[in-house]
Amino acid sequence: MFYLLTFAISLLLMCLSGYCRGALKVLLLAVSLLLPCLVAGFRDISIGTDTSAYAIWTFESASRNGLRPFLESYASLSAAGFNLFSWVIANWSCSFGIYLGAIELAFLLPVFIAIRHYFPNREWPGMAVVYLLMFTGSMNLMKQSIAIGFVFLSSVFADEKRPIPFLLCIAMGILFHQTAVIGLLVYPLFLTVARPLQPNGASKWRSLILVTIALIAISLVFVFGKRLIATFSFLKDSYQYQVGHVGEGGLQVSYLVLAVLLLVSWWTCRPFDADGQNSVSSVDYLSREHARYDSFFALSLLGCALMQLDVVSLSLGRFGYYLVPFVGLFLAKLYVEGNRMSRMVSVLLLICLVVFFVRAFIILGGNQVYPYITSGGVVLP
User: Fold this and answer.
1) Cβ(321)–Cβ(303) below 8 Å
2) DSSP per-residue codes, 273-326
3) CB burial of residue 93 (10 Å; 0-12, 13-18, 19+)
4) CA 36 to CA 6: how far, in whole Å?
5) Spatial separation of the C-alpha atoms in residues 330 and 266, rounded to whole Å
6) For the purposes of burial, counting CB atoms within 10 Å of the CB of 44, is it exposed (0-12), middle (13-18) or buried (19 or more)?
């Protein structure tokens, strides 16, 4: 299948780059990231529901108008950052394909930088999850995908306890899509979970309690969802969509299954032995790595929970997309730094995600991306 083949080639090049140095390493990484951008860029207008809904019209309007008239006319339709980005790319390239490819790159690059921060030279497991869970969505929710990239990158600064760069990343995300405000949850979660090393069981229970509290908070959205939607609908014209589709969504069963798999994996596996029986002897190092592992799990689980907000109103579950990429960091933590059992679990999780991708986007036609059609009309299965 075309998408899976693209992912495989990109990930293979990414994996090989870990064994190279200098210019060859840079070349392999560049090609690995540009390959999915080319797929996203030179697709037919029918691929991705929002490609024809707003991308083509935004590009054509940006190409025809000056900067100020364009920003004024689209102020109520898209966030200022996305409008400025669209105008610059449209007038620089004069190509709709390059415009779509640039949007994809603006999503993938910060995601890759964040994964590389945590797993230098071992980025491919995390990127594999991002491809399987987010790539088709990024060809649909294009404005939000860029915001997701910045929110994901903000986790690097949350991990390092640097609030100013963290807030700047969130602000950049909000400039592309206001829903990026959900990213403000990342810093306090990292700060709360990052405690001195405790016995393995105690650490797990503490994290589980924190996640339970967060899930209870999310459940309040289900109770007061209609009132919240009505309250915030005046902020932007497109938010009226949620008002008109209250109660039309449903449970995201696949993400519920994923949440269960994550919970079981997290409870049974640890990336390092908390008792210090492996080669890592630094308590501070162990404490930091366990905090990361628990943070990745908690954010992944919250992402799966937020996806269920579609029950309240159609497309309200889009908030979950901001945290779903942390599944990649969780899986990579198990694969890169875990023992044999953790690696086996991570591989099984990856296989489940491949099945999810095939079912959701190929069999059921999610995000309207299959079969892939090029801008020249060539159909690729």
Assistant:
1) yes
2) -TT--SS---HHHHHHHHHHHHHHHHHHHHHHHHGGGGGTBTTGGGGGGGTTTH
3) middle
4) 7
5) 9
6) middle
How much is the pTM?
Answer: 0.88
The pLDDT tens digits for 174-231 are 999 988 998 998 998 888 766 544 544 445 555 566 666 666 655 655 555 555 555 5
Omega prior to 381 cis, within 30 of 0: no
Report residue 321 as tokens: 């997309």
Cβ atoms of 129 and 144 within 8 Å: the answer is: no
Identify each DSSP E strand in the chain by its residue range: 372-373, 379-380
The tens digit of pLDDT for each residue in 34-74 reads 999 999 999 999 998 888 888 999 999 999 999 999 999 88
Q: Distance of CA 129 to CAs 238, 329, 345, 373, Å?
A: 30, 9, 14, 24
Pull the structure tokens for residue 79: 């966030």
The encoded tokens of residue 84 equal 């400025």
- Residue pair 328/336 in contact (Cβ under 8 Å)? The answer is no
Q: Of 370, 381, 356, 375, nearest to 131 (Cα)?
A: 356
User: What's the burial of 145, exposed, middle or buried (CB within 10 Å: 0-12/13-18/19+)?
Assistant: buried
Query: Measuring CA to CA, which residue among 136, 140, 138, 79 is closest to residue 107?
Result: 138
Give the span between the Cα atoms of 189 and 152, in whole angstroms.
Answer: 14
Q: Do the Cβ atoms of 138 and 62 come closer than 8 Å?
A: no
Give the C-alpha separation, 182 to 180, whole Å.
5
Judge contact between 269 and 342, C-beta under 8 A: yes
CB-based contacts of 273, cutoff 8 Å, min separation 6:
none
Helix (H, G, I), strand (E, B) or coil at 379: strand
pLDDT in tens, 229-274: 555 555 555 555 555 555 556 678 888 899 889 988 888 886 554 4
Return phi, psi of residue 321, to 5°: -60, -25
Residue type, 38: L
Higher pLDDT, residue 311 or 171: 171
